[in-house]
Specification:
It is built from no helices and 20 strands. It is mainly β.
């Protein structure tokens, strides 16, 4: 869920985004999509922004739950949106990282990868970091140009974090990776049980 000004917003596999009063759980409104909602909503400028299995990024009013605009992709959306520099960044099962203008809903660019993107992008130091279901981990800039790529053995569904110059993420290969955020070189890796 996402919390904003005393309201709790949460998606569900019943195809609805629910708005509840965070203090007492009282129902405020719901917004129906045509697919399950897995991703965590993001709040920006009194709008709730989230993706759905119906291939769309939805932007609805915080107060009323009425649609502001939608943006279509060619695949389901499991990646939670991130906002920076006036744009929404999110991945889709169409294998693209999308950059969409937060006000107009128009695409700025799409960056093509080789697999669906379930990872929530990390936006830091004017870069976008994310993983794909083929094990690729990418660093791209705000123009949608690749700076570097790292390959793990299995899917990178996790959402990366950054501290200092290191970017951290885990893979379904059972490994936690620490990479240099500037060039993608491994700093260290830690093998877990599963």
């Amino acid at each position: 869920p996402a919390l904003h000004q005393g309201m709790l917003f949460i998606g569900c596999y019943d195809n609805n985004l629910y708005a509840l009063n965070a203090a007492d759980g009282q129902f405020q409104w719901k917004y129906a999509t045509e697919g399950g909602i897995v991703a965590r909503p993001t709040i920006y400028d009194n709008n709730v922004i989230f993706g759905s299995e119906d291939h769309r990024l939805h932007v609805v009013s915080v107060r009323s739950g009425k649609v502001v605009w939608t943006y279509y992709t060619e695949g389901e959306i499991y990646s939670s949106p991130r906002i920076a520099d006036g744009h929404i960044f999110f991945g889709s099962d169409d294998q693209d990282m999308h950059a969409v203008n937060v006000t107009s809903g128009r695409a700025k660019w799409k960056f093509a990868t080789d697999a669906p993107i379930h990872s929530t992008p990390l936006v830091a130091n004017e870069m976008i970091f994310f993983g794909t279901e083929s094990g690729g981990f990418y660093a791209i800039d705000f123009r949608g140009e690749q700076k570097w790529r790292f390959q793990s053995k299995r899917a990178v569904t996790s959402s990366p974090i950054i501290k200092g110059q290191a970017v951290y993420f885990s893979s379904v290969d059972g490994t936690l990776y620490a990479l240099d955020s500037k060039n993608g070189w491994p700093i260290w890796k830690f093998r877990m049980g599963k």
